[in-house]
Amino acid sequence: MALLAVRLVLLLLAGDLAASLDSLSSEFDQPSEYRTPNCNQYKLPGCPRDFSPVCGSDMSTYPNECTLCMKIREDGHDIKIIRSGPC
Predict the structure, then answer these.
(1) Which of 4, 38, 55, 86 is the Cys-Cys partner for 82 at CB 3.0 to 4.6 Å?
(2) Which GO terms describe its molecular function (predicted)?
């Protein structure tokens, strides 16, 4: 009877551990809300001077989406927008 109780407790603990690991791994995955900047709307190399900062996936803050597009064009890196606003 005691062996059955120990098995039951271990089974419950294993289930809790698996659920915790699943939530932890999803916390560090790349969020799906990363978005690709719409660089086709800008006539590069000139950008408007509006200040509407965006945070790039390279963890740099850009004054606006257009300046991020200029960086992508210059360096050739695929930088996504993590969020609107500074990093």
Answers:
(1) 55
(2) serine-type endopeptidase inhibitor activity
3 state DSSP class of 60: coil
Per-residue confidence at 25, pLDDT binned at 50, 70, 90? Answer: very low
SS3 87: coil
Give tens-digit pLDDT for 40-83: 998 877 898 999 999 999 999 999 999 999 999 999 999 999 99
Using the predicted structure, report yes or no on whether residue 5 has a pLDDT greater than 80: no
- 32-86 placed in CATH 1.10.101.10: no
Is residue 62 within 8 A of residue 53, CB to CB? The reply is yes
